Amino acid sequence: MRDRRVTRSxxxxxxxxxxxxxxxxxxxxxxxxxGCDNPSxxxxxxxxxxxxxxxxxxxxxxxxxxxxxxxxxxxxxxxxANGLGPDRKAADLSTRLRDAERALAAPAAQTRTPLLQxxxxxPHAFDTDWRIARSTLYLAPAGPETGTAPFAFSxxxxxxxxxxVVPVGNRPYRxxxxxxxxxxxxxxxxxxxYRAGQTVSIADDAPDPGGxxxxxxxxxxxxxxxxxARIGGADRRFAIVRAERARPALATLDRRFDVCRLPDRxxxxxxxxxFYSGRWLSETCPFRPGRIDILASEEDGFNAKVExxxxxxxxxxxxxxxxxxxxxxxxxxxxxxLIYVSYLDIKADFSGRVIARLLRHHAALGTTIRIITSDVLxxxxxxxxxxxxxxxxxxVELRRFRWQPPAGARPAEALSRLHKVxxxxxxxxxxxxPGRSAAIIGGRNIHDGFLFPDPVDLSAFPDLQHYGxxxxxxxxxxxxxxxxxxxxxxxxxxRTLAAHLSTLWNDDASTAMFRxxxxxxxxxxxxxxxxARHFISVPYADGRALxxxxxxxxxxxxxxxxxxxxxxxxxxxxxAALRRALDRGVDVAIIGRxxxxxxxxxxxxxxxxxxFVNTHAERxxxxxxxxxxxxxxxKLLMVDGELTVLSSVNFNNRSFIHDSENGVAxxxxxxxxxxxxVFEDYRRASVRLESAxxxxxxxxxxxxxxxxxxx
Length: 711
Known about the structure:
By secondary structure, the chain is an alpha/beta fold. The protein contains 21 helices and 34 strands.
């Protein structure tokens, strides 16, 4: 079999050689699929998703709802990429833009999916190809901890699959593959396609950390490749497999969407109506939550994550000793099939190293581990820790979120890529034995500031973060945060939460669009006793559905609204809803923190909080959290003594305009009473405010809309 090689020096020469008809087709398809801002492409995808075949009414309704979201996103991109505004006339558009706008307008107009009249509730499977699926293969030399599990790429619901090759430390590498199906290599200087059984040779002698990575594009008939990587002077052998065929049980979880049989809203209270309503916001169906642990203290929050992975707590004195490499007993660790680690920040410090050690244990046993964090907050040591984990164990899949604006976007939109972050926070573990699964949701990150009052002395560990000061306005800043998490342990509940997070994991790599998790149907009943729903929000992909949801909850309040949140920069729609609640006589109490010294952007956040106090202190009981040991970070909303929302959501513009978010709404007076005790604990450490000082400089600066919307 002839050995064809693509390198930086030879790629151009190969690109000039004659191509087969199959390669020509691949090139055309690649051009069409990678044009993420091509409105015609998005209109075509929306049309195909809307036509989901003849599986049944639930599938068709779900397809129409999802198609409407794709079309709306395409329309938004069309507007942003061409500088269009609400006042422009049709005559101002070119024929191409007019045609694209018409193609997108019809499905996008379906702002709500009508409730299905008849449909079986529960899980269904979505199989339509709609997205670009992108995985990252991290390469590093084999070492004593290197695992044997294969690297799995996703072709699930994919119009195109991509594998980006990233050498850890930007080392030069050689990669040789023999695959059972066609493989296309998109190198830095050319594209080449290889037949099944043909040897694929790739070389990158000067990897550029800020440049374009070599992409492997497996064809739809490719299931497996045998690979040899030459890196660091040694060979490493491994397999590359198609995930949905190698891991069918996980593919079932990834395909899932649910039909929610919801009660007639006319028979519900306003608050029940808001809770049970079907909407564009991606939500689970109402579920019985089982046991919910409230993790109010910092140690409780960290230990819950440890116990989910280790099956027991850390030894006595482990935290106080400050040695993240101290012995750990893994004898009671659960056998896990899937682990999700999703946070804004995953640091290479004491907390992060302990979690990484626990993840390595499960990775060595073959567990699929999916890690997602925000690229902008991933510093050098953090990156190395995560990439080495993913390179040592190819069943660890790592994704660092970085949003890309539409091509041609206006400056303000383009600038938002610097502050749009992944803010969905969950650690979920699926166990093989009943009762050993867990899901932890709330506001904490994996960062020592959520565990220790002061930086741990890690001078003996040069590869870990050394926080030089407690306060500081750098991306490596340290503060001692006070927050709240909750933990679920029911296996069915944890599986539902993991399946919901899978919709975000299996997004479209070109647009960050993700599937909604449920579609509403008629015929349900309001539950007696505790009932909960989990939500995930990506505001630039779902029409700011989270903002609509919070407005509905506030508008439903009849007696009381209680909030813990340190960021009080409300969107106009939420502020208007709050004013309406006050006009109805609803009692509103907010525990916040005016002075945000120690937070990134502390000065502007302090000014925004002060402005909120001066605007609303006459009608709202606003409390300033004063515990000197902590900077407030909790996110809690409670309504009428019945509904409690614990989430990652801040009461600021960013959470409703820019950042992905998640949370759990629990309808239950008993759970409210438990959370009310936490609220009162915070209030005892607070003082009520009548006013706050905001300088004339900040009053002027805060009139800039772009600044307010970025905070």
